[in-house]
Amino acid sequence: MTVNFKVNNKKVEIKDLDNLSLLKILREHLSLKGAKCGCKTGDCGTCSVIIDGELVRSCLVLGKNLEGKSIKTIEYYKDEKIRELQETFTRSGAIQCGFCTPGMIMAAYSILEKNPKPTKKEIREGLKYNLCRCTGYEKIVDAIYDASGQVNTKKHIIASVFKGNIGTSKPVQAALEKAEGKFEYTDDLVFNNLYHGKILFAPSAHGYITKMNIEEAKKIEGVLDIVTCMDQEYWSKDFNCHITSPFEKLVRNEKMFNRHFRYDGDKIAAVVAISEEIAQKAVKAIEYEFKTYPVILDVKKAMKDDSYPIQKDNNIAARNIGYEIGNVEDAYKDCDILFEKEYHTQKQSHGMMEPHIAVANYDGEILTLYAPTQNVFGFRSLMTEIFDLPYNKVRVIKTNIGGAFGAKSEVVVEHIASLLAIRVKGTVKVNLSRKEEFLCGKTRTAIDFNVKFGVKNGKFKSMGIDAVLDRGGYYGSTIDLCYAWMDKVYKLYECENIKTNTIAIYTNTQNSGAVRGYGAPQVNFARETAINDYCRDQGLDKIQFRLDNLFEQGSKDIATKETMTSVYVKDCLTRAYEMIEEKRNKWEDENYYYGLGVAVGVHGNGIGLPVADFASSSIKYCADGSVIVNTTVHDMGQGSTIMIKKIVAEVLGIDDDLVTVLNPDTNSNYYSNGAYATRETWVNGNSVKAAADELIKVIINETAEIHEKNIEDLIYLDGKIATKAGDLVATAAEVVLHRMHKPPFKEIEATVHFTNPQVPGSYMANIVISKVDKKTGEVKVEKLIAVHDVGRAINPMMLEGQIEGGIHMGLGFAISEEVKYDKKTGKLETINFKKYKMFRANDMPEIHIEIVNKPDSVGPLGAKGVGEAALTAVAPAVIDSINEAIGSNFNKIPVLQKDIQEFLGL
Amino acid sequence: MKLMLNMTINNEKISVEIEPDSRLLDVLRDDLGLLGTKEGCGVGECGACTVIIDGKTANSCVTLAASMEGCDIKTIEYLSKNGKLHPMQKSFIDNSALQCGFCTPGFVLSGVNLLERNPNPTEEEIKEGISGNICRCTGYEQIVKAVEDVRDEKYIKDGACDE
After folding, report:
1. Fold equal for A446-506+516-608+759-904 and A614-755
2. How many CA atoms lie within 13 A of A647 on its CB side?
3. Is residue B92 over pLDDT 50?
4. How far apart are CA A55 and CA A108, in angstroms?
5. What residues in A contact B33, CB-CB < 8 Å?
6. Maximum CA pair distance of chain A?
7. Does the pLDDT of residue B81 top 90, yes or no?
8. C-alpha span between A251 and A254 (Å, rounded)
9. Is B153 left (phi over 0), alpha (psi -120 to 50) or beta?
10. Checking DSSP bridges between strand A70-72 and strand A2-7, what pairing results, if any?
11. Which CATH architecture has domain A614-755?
């Protein structure tokens, strides 16, 4: 069968369609890779194209139905409207990771075709089939509004501007390429002689494989190899997916393939074949038998002594992790009022638009892993451990990332791709479907808290927070997460006596891992909701109570006794309250109950105690005055590359276009702990700042030597070296050229290994207004005010973008994203975006963002990180607004419509 | 218009749809993914694209693919098909007969083909036998030595291409 149609005005003839989707035809047969595959079920919109004027999701369209149709894709650069949208998206900061961007632009195109002057509400309505996990849709709506020629009067955050690099806005690296659909993600890369790996997942949530037969599967033509949980090989040893260095003594209790499977995302076998279809066919042909064990989804059940052991002895992964400052129990006796209540947070999926993918090559000597990872060195460590290879024989190269949010900091498929590549001595790709991503991707740790505090004369006197962590089946990053949540308890409210305690429990649920915030959103929900509950109980003003107790400039971290380098959380809260017009906690009209919710919060910068964070950077001046920076930042759309460029450009006084930052590659880059823990701005930013300062010293020294001047008489300014009297001596480029091509023939470079035990906190206040429908119980978050204390803004537009994206994730965490299980079988039910509900463009509230704009004393040029702080205080503010509106006392998230209906008796 | 071409490549029967004016080199590299065969000049002068057609070496860059109907073709990938190196490949490695490696697949095939036709060539005959291939790195000394070592049966045949 032959089908004739047009793509971007070119005639196309396709034969033997074999039920191919249009997306596959575009990507694989026509090499038009702008349309992305985010789910294959029509839920995410990353594959959107226009067919005969209508917006469609190309993964749902069969090629055989295309006869005579005319298709427009993101690559149709001849269309002026598409080009204009590409430009406004780039200019407006509407692009972060860029994976959803081509689909978004096609949706925008369709909106404007039908309605050239849409309102923002109409734009949001038109975008509801397209998901974005990075931006919170704000800047996407702005970009489309801009392209419609209407004047946008929206206010943006005001930042102090340095010479031009710091405080001025710039889109993320390669924004235009992302808008044009030319930015190549891992699935867009071309590899020769590429094989494909597919994974067989566990049949239920808890059990043991008794028999497995791969003979039939092996006979399928095109199958190269099959590895299973029955194999006893050097690589089937226990490991820990979170290991980032061999020095980490973390418990290792998972295998690549687990015969004793502990959740339904556990892998039990993998096939490598010449095509993805054949590999999938072989996966289905693997025969096995298994026995089931009791399924335990609930931590309380799992903790019981007679509970079935998920790991070896019992279900306790860790206990008694915590520390006490002062004497909490004694201090309770001295308090006027005691408050105690339990709070529960639930798992959350990353929901990044690009599922996990990895391509590994093994040439008989060196294993090369191409992966969209947040941690090239961590992955290298783990591969060397699993495959008994030395560090110099494993190379990990970061490919372009389509969103990560922590998902891509722990291995999920990368070790499988590597194993299959080693087995066939070739190149193997493993690409997860969305369902597989939900199954075996990590989740935010669900934590049950018990919050107790005592107040004397209106001030905190004593506070104790106990936590029970739901780990899922394996140890992973248990200990790191314990310290991550506890750390946040000691740096927000003044209180002499504080203790924390954690117990971590194994269950048969999706394995917990790093998700944006990493413990902070959970504990912040518990503590802030407790304070709101306390204030409501006691009839106190929740703003004033906070102002009486919050940290301020000069406050000391209660655990470490170190003075915090900058704390303006009171300013955040005061300003947020000023910005809101409705200065009352609750009101109602005929149809809705309204409530005003408040929360503040703190997040760290960099890996916390007991190890001070560190990073190395080297900057080399080229002979034309441009510079190459060797530091390892993993840009995933959050803008870390442009952040580094701006800092270096600022210090050296050159244009940021003259700065190039290396892409993470373990063979060439300086070691890095990875892109998590809000560490890139503070740690890497500081490290390149120090290297740039050092480079100036080096170049002054060299100039002094060449021109026979005293070092003390010379100054460096904007790429030139002059005498203090103001006479130009040489340009930096001249000095470099002189040193490189005349004796002593040396490069002009500087290297700095940075560390600092003094770690700032990033603070914020959120105020939310929500309305609850009296008839349906539906919640609509109407307005959200976010004021952040993140030091000096380096790139205001992308800072806003981070906060907006964080708000999106925080809103889902509060009221829409539910990870749901079948209670009997323990199988995950939320395996697509239909069931796992992330906020869409038309669900988002009106957002107002400001920053305090005061520099931090140890931040690079005064900056602090924002990536995780962005969502830390969102959920408690939202839940408070609901509790105020309807008089409820919700103490668990997410609060869903059905919970509200139940409360209101609807 | 496209043609259907049937041929045997590395002992496997293959049917492939080709353009009438395709070169054998393009079909091998682009359609079949056999990237061992290199293009060095495109005009049959350097031998980097050498393959063995029906027992004789040929430059695949000047061979019209359409003329290969029913032919038996062997490429460098054939020699290590079972995961083991052919003696000629081992000998090239041991004698440092390869530097950049771009000409190597062509030289190896020329060497193998020479010994198939003449199991006991003299040094002169070896030089004559590889004269269709150009190498810019080695000066040919080690390449000749590598072929001599295989001629002298310094390597036990391990059956990689015995089929």
Report:
1. yes
2. 33
3. yes
4. 9
5. 192-193
6. 87
7. no
8. 9
9. left
10. parallel
11. 2-Layer Sandwich (3.30)
| Domain coordinates in residue numbering, chain B | 3-75, 87-151
Per-residue tokens: A553 = 């400039």
Q: B163 pLDDT exceeds 70?
A: no
Helices (H), A34-182: 80-91, 101-114, 120-126, 138-147, 175-180
Buried b (16+ CB within 10 A) or exposed e, A314-328: bbbbbeebbeebeeb
Interface ipTM: 0.77
Q: In what order do the strands lie in the sheet with A223-228?
A: A223-228, A267-273, A194-201, A427-431, A357-362, A367-371, A394-398
Residue among A15, A31, A193 with most chain B CBs within 10 A, to mutate: A193
Q: What's A194-294+350-440's CATH class?
A: alpha beta
- The predicted-structure confidence for A86-122, as pLDDT tens digits, reads as follows 999 999 999 999 999 999 999 999 999 999 999 999 9
Residue A364 near chain B (CB below 8 Å): no
Q: What is the mean pLDDT of residues A775-790?
A: 97
Q: Which two tokens stand for residue A862?
A: 């005064």
* pLDDT digit string, tens, across residues A432-478: 999 999 999 999 999 999 999 999 999 999 999 999 999 999 999 99
Per residue in A598-629, pLDDT tens? 999 999 999 876 678 999 999 999 999 999 99
- CA–CA separation, B51 and B65 (whole Å): 13
Cβ–Cβ under 8 Å, residues A399 and A361: no
**The residue type at B46:** C
Å between A424 CA and nearest CA of chain B: 10
Query: Under an 8 A CB cutoff, do A193 and B33 touch?
Result: yes
Q: How far is A15 from chain B (nearest CA, A)?
A: 13
Superfamily (CATH) of domain B87-151: [2Fe-2S]-binding domain (1.10.150.120)
The answer to whether B109 and B51 have CB atoms below 8 angstroms apart is: yes
Q: Which residue of A has its CA nearest to B83?
A: A425
Q: Does B4 touch chain A (CB under 8 A)?
A: no
Whether the CB of A193 is below 8 Å from some CB of chain B: the reply is: yes
Q: Are strands B72-74 and B3-9 parallel, antiparallel or unpaired?
A: parallel
Q: A192 touching B, CB under 8 A?
A: yes
Per-residue pLDDT tens over the stretch A552-600: 999 999 999 999 999 999 999 999 999 999 999 999 999 999 999 999 9
Contact B33 A425 (CB under 8 A): no
List the helix and strand counts (H, then E) for chain A: 24, 33
Assess A425–B contact: CB distance below 8 Å, yes or no.
Answer: yes
- What is the residue extent of each domain of chain A? 194-294+350-440, 446-506+516-608+759-904, 614-755
Residue B35 and residue A192: Cβ atoms within 8 Å?
A: yes
Beta strand A427-431 pairing with A357-362: antiparallel
CB A48 within 8 A of CB A55: yes
Which chain B residues are Cβ-neighbours of A425 within 8 angstroms?
83
* Closest Cα in chain B to A193: B33
The CATH label, of 3.40.50.300, 3.40.50.720, 3.30.365.10, 3.30.930.10, for the domain at A446-506+516-608+759-904 is 3.30.365.10
Q: Is B35 on the interface with A (CB under 8 A)?
A: yes
Pick from A96, A43, A25: which is nearest to A35 by CA? Answer: A25
CATH of the domain spanning B3-75, picked from 3.40.50.720, 3.40.50.300, 3.30.70.100, 3.10.20.30 = 3.10.20.30
Give the nearest chain A residue to B29 (CA atoms): A192
Q: Are A184 and A400 in contact (CB under 8 A)?
A: yes
Taking the C-alpha atoms of residue B88 and residue B79, their distance in angstroms, rounded to an integer, is: 9
CA distance linking residue A157 with residue A837, whole number of Å? 30
